[in-house]
Prior knowledge:
This protein is an alpha+beta fold. The protein has helices at 7-20, 30-35, 39-42, 47-60, 80-91, 95-114, 138-147, 164-174, and strands spanning 64-66, 76-78, 116-123, 128-135, 155-161. A three-stranded antiparallel β-sheet has the order 4-3-5, sandwiched between helices. A two-stranded antiparallel sheet has the order 1-2.
Amino acid sequence: xxxxxxxxxxxxxxxxxxxxxxxxxxxxxxxxxxxxxxxxxxxxxxxxxxxxxxxxxxxxxxxxxxxxxxxxxxxxxxxxxxxxxxxxxxxxxxxxxxxxxxxxxxxxxxxxxxxxxxxxxxxxxxxxxxxxxxxxxxxxxxxxxxxxxxxxxxxxxxxxxxxxxxxxxxxxxxxxx
Length: 177
């Protein structure tokens, strides 16, 4: 199982993706990176300094490499380690999300465990049919039984909570008509 990202690593990956893109070796210009800065930072004379500081931090941590431009201008490209960090950041889930998913799965399991078998007799146009429905309440079972009717003249005759012995007895008594 891969190591879970810390919040700092996640934020670094998101920042790298924003400024350098997702592909390793592709070199955006310093002006392109500066254009991605927040609006307040774009309008200051220090924008190039901010870009250089960010790039120095990425290079120091091995997430980016220096890639001078064709005329010798400053530039940086994503390293393979940076691309791997971005890939991890894209699938990362926060601990709160993981807890919420676990709670939802536990609630679904509790609901399934609490469901009971209900039996219903449906009077069709040409026959009487017995069905078994898993539901939490008898009202829910009756609603599901009504949804299975096809024509307006069909009716739900009975709905009850069933045990194996009881349902077998009623099927013998009702039969098909």
